[in-house]
Design brief:
Layout: E1 5-6, E2 9-10, H1 11-21, H2 30-38, H3 56-60, E3 71-74, H4 82-88, E4 94-98, H5 102-105, H6 107-117, E5 122-125, H7 134-146, E6 151-156, H8 158-173, E7 182-183, E8 193-197, E9 209-214, E10 219-224, E11 232-235, H9 245-264, H10 270-292, H11 297-317, H12 321-333, H13 337-352, H14 357-366, H15 376-393, H16 410-417, H17 421-426, H18 433-445
Parallel strand pairs: 3-11, 4-5, 4-6, 6-8, 7-10, 8-11
Antiparallel strand pairs: 1-2, 9-10
């Protein structure tokens, strides 16, 4: 099967090259290498402009900066290398932030066993909520300081990793977590921090963001700044096989959204596009298999790699309106981040089509749609169908009504969504308050049999 070449290299190989160029040390197991090398889709009919490094507008448009300092170790059973990674970073006592559910799955012992064997002391902190409040970061930092920990390891989904990143920063910068909400407020590097994702979703192991619920305002917001980039990330696909189907679905669609929104972002550039397209490919073709059979290690490896690449894409190009509109669902009603994003996805894609029809046509084809011979707009509309069908395949609710969101709250939700400034500015179509209200209303009722 032919594939689109850039400077003589397949797109997937370029993703690996870029990862190495931008601060990553990658170690892969064989199955994922095979997937990335063969490039499952036929890119030969995709418009060359998205892969051509000589594309004029990409080179002469707005400047962009790529900062991706995280060292990455990827492969089955690489959790055994955690003690070495801690020592390489100069850590002597670990503050171990974990999702509370890891003990029930048996993963907690799998995480701590290498530390015990290597006689690396650690302090366990498992007071993590699915939508963590700022107080969890403050409490964690106080405990880590009392325990004299000099390295933080976050294990689990995005919530555990976000708390771990915040604790690292608080140990050196002082103050309260609330002090660092916003962009560029963190002045000092944190203590060394290592992220170990056990879901394939958030990409938090390679991003400069930590998201929290502000208990005072009941709103959701993030700390953002280069000091939040983890020093290292350890990605072991074997740690993801115990994820139940529902969590696999929510986190997997969340990862897809990171890649999709980064690709159509107003901040997108050739490097972010490369990461995003490879992530869309891997996730859209492997999520169903990981959902159907959690023990499929090749699918799990592909999903974890897809999540990683999507995280790299969003770290440098940002996300869009799906994320802005999901924040009120988390802040006001406690809906898990991945689930809120997933339900909103098809409705926001439909709204955004006119803002980036060429790119949505590419997304549809990368996801597997046969768009040969279609007019550009019709091909772009296939992206809506593809994401809607993938949601249906993995059991994502089709409407906000199924999440018990009260319709009377839509105006308030829309107003809050538009205050999530950076994702709104990144969006390929500039939303107004009536626009956002209309999207929520459509997502509340659903499309019935239109799609």
């Amino acid at each position: 099967m032919p594939c689109r070449l850039v400077s003589g290299l397949p797109v997937g190989v370029l993703a690996l090259v870029a990862a190495l160029l931008f601060g990553a040390t990658l170690h892969f197991g064989l199955p994922i290498v095979e997937q990335l090398s063969r490039i499952a889709l036929n890119y030969s009919s995709i418009k060359p402009s998205f892969f051509n490094p000589k594309r004029t507008e990409a080179m002469t448009g707005q400047p962009f900066t790529v900062t991706q300092p995280t060292r990455i170790r990827f492969g089955v059973n690489t959790i055994n290398d955690l003690p070495t990674m801690v020592k390489d970073l100069g850590g002597e006592k670990v503050f171990l932030v974990v999702d509370p559910g890891l003990a029930a799955t048996g993963l907690l012992e799998r995480i701590v066993a290498p530390l015990k064997t290597a006689k690396v002391p650690f302090e366990l902190y498992d007071k993590i909520d699915p939508e963590p409040g700022l107080k969890l970061a403050d409490q964690g930092a106080a405990l880590a300081k009392r325990a004299k920990c000099d390295c933080v390891v976050g294990v689990g989904g995005g919530s555990a990793m976000d708390v771990a990143k915040a604790v690292s920063i608080l140990l050196t910068n002082g103050g309260k977590a609330e002090d660092y909400l916003g962009l560029g407020k963190i002045k000092k590097p944190g203590v060394p921090k290592i992220m170990v994702p056990t879901t394939a979703g958030t990409g938090a192991e390679v991003t400069f963001t930590a998201v929290f619920i502000n208990e005072k305002t009941k709103s959701k917001g993030g700390m953002n700044g280069d000091p939040l980039y983890p020093d290292a990330a350890l990605l072991d696909p074997a740690l993801t096989v115990s994820m139940p189907p529902r969590v696999t679905a929510m986190t997997g669609i969340d990862a897809l959204i990171h890649a999709l929104e980064a690709f159509v972002s107003n901040q997108a550039h050739p490097i972010s596009n490369m990461y995003a397209l490879e992530a869309i490919d891997l996730i859209s073709h492997n999520l169903g298999m990981a959902y159907a059979h959690g023990g499929n290690l090749e699918a799990r490896s592909a999903m974890l790699m897809g999540s990683l690449l999507a995280g790299k894409a969003l770290a440098t190009a940002g996300v869009g309106l799906v994320h802005a509109m999901s924040y009120p669902l988390g802040g006001m009603f406690g809906i898990p981040h991945g689930l809120a994003n997933a339900v909103l996805l098809p409705y926001v894609v439909e709204y955004n089509l006119i803002g980036a029809p060429d790119k949505f046509a590419v997304i549809a084809e990368v996801m597997g749609a046969d768009v040969a011979g279609m007019p550009n707009r019709q091909a772009a509309e296939m992206a809506v169908d593809m994401v809607y069908q993938l949601n249906q395949d993995v059991g994502i609710p089709a409407t906000l009504a199924e999440l018990k969101i009260p319709a009377k709250k839509i105006p308030e939700m829309a107003s809050i969504a538009l205050t999530v400034t950076r994702p709104v500015e990144n969006n390929p179509r500039k939303p107004t308050l009536p626009d956002v209200v209309a999207i929520y209303e459509t997502a509340m009722a659903g499309w019935m049999h239109e799609h």
